[in-house]
Amino acid sequence: MAQVPQALSTEVPTREQIQQELEDNEKLIKAILENMNAGKLQACAGYQKKLQQNLMRLASIADAQPPPTVVEPSNAAAVVPQQQASPVPQQ
Question: Is the CA virtual torsion 14, 15, 18, 24 positive or negative?
Answer without folding.
Answer: negative
